[in-house]
Amino acid sequence: MELVIFDLDGVIVSTDKYHYEAWKSLADEHSLLFSHEINSMLRGVSRAECLKIILDVNGRVVSSVDSSKMLLKKNTIYQDKLHALSKNDILPGFLKLLNDLKVNNIPVAIGSSSRNTPLILKKIGLDRSFDTVVDGNCIDNSKPHPEVFLKCAEQLGKNPLKCVVYEDAIAGVDAGIAAGMMVIGVGTEKLTGVHKMVKTLENESYEIINNLYKEVFEV
Ligand code: G6P
Ligand code: MG
Predict the structure, then answer these.
(1) What is the pLDDT of residue 217?
(2) Does pTM surpass 0.90?
(3) Which atom of ligand 1 is nearest to the CA of 169?
(4) Boundaries of every domain in the chain
(5) Over the stretch 126-179, which tens digit does the pLDDT of each residue have?
(6) CATH 1.10.150.240 fits 16-82, yes or no
(7) What residues does the ion ligand 2 have nearby, CB within 5 Å?
(8) Least packed by Cβ within 10 Å: which of 1, 43, 188, 200?
């Protein structure tokens, strides 16, 4: 095992509530139905794809000009909410795991669909903590396409088959599997296809990840 890649939203920090509130506010303004169920379909998916999903569910078609305006509005509302983020929003267990990986000389990366990744990392004080950050600003294809994770491996000169991904969203799990990586699911949502599921990162360590990696890939 040579590289650990973390998704950001839902793995390192919980921004789900802010995404929900921003989409809800946009949906209300345009008389579109939006629920927690629809919100859960948006995890790990790019902003533009999210809007398409919401419009599809509502059977609504909009021009590309209106779509751009809606995306801008959603992001303005979302970024306003992000200003409240701080180190206290880092999810339990992450900092301990990060430190353990560093002590064991394992490089760490971010593989996120979010274009707000640099802003979020700065707000939570982790903008200098990763060996590479690949986010929504650097990719052409959103998860479940494997591009984001393959780029992390490529940038650090690692074999994708020797990488481990932490993900909370089905689109991200599918991306990690498509990249040929070992995938650990985080959270309480059922994630099909993961090599292991954990509720939080609290009990994770280099040794646990490496032992699982050996079991899965080195039989
Ligand atoms: C993450 C979230 C998604 C979000 C995407 C794009 O993957 O889980 O719900 O749509 O990032 O976020 P952005 O910050 O670029 O709007
Ligand atoms: Mg996520």
Answers:
(1) 87
(2) yes
(3) 8
(4) 3-14+89-217, 16-82
(5) 999 999 999 999 999 999 999 999 999 999 999 999 999 999 999 999 999 999
(6) yes
(7) 7, 9-10, 44, 168-169
(8) 188
Q: Which ligand is nearest to the CA of 6?
A: 2
Whole-number pLDDT of residue 61:
97
Residue of 38, 81, 110, 113 to test ligand 1 pocket, by largest number of atoms within 8 Å of CB:
113
Q: What tokens appear for 50 in the block?
A: 């999210």
Cα separation of 179 and 84, whole Å? 34
CATH 3.40.50.1000 fits 3-14+89-217, yes or no: yes
Cβ density class 134-162: b for 16+ within 10 Å, e for less? bbbebbeebbbbbbbbbbbbebbebebee
Find the 214 Cα to ligand 1 centroid distance in Å: 32
Residue 209: name the closest of 117, 78, 124, 106 by CA.
106
From residue 194, how far is each of 171, 178, 180 by CA, in Å?
Answer: 12, 12, 12
CB 27 within 8 Å of CB 33: yes
Amino acid at 216: V
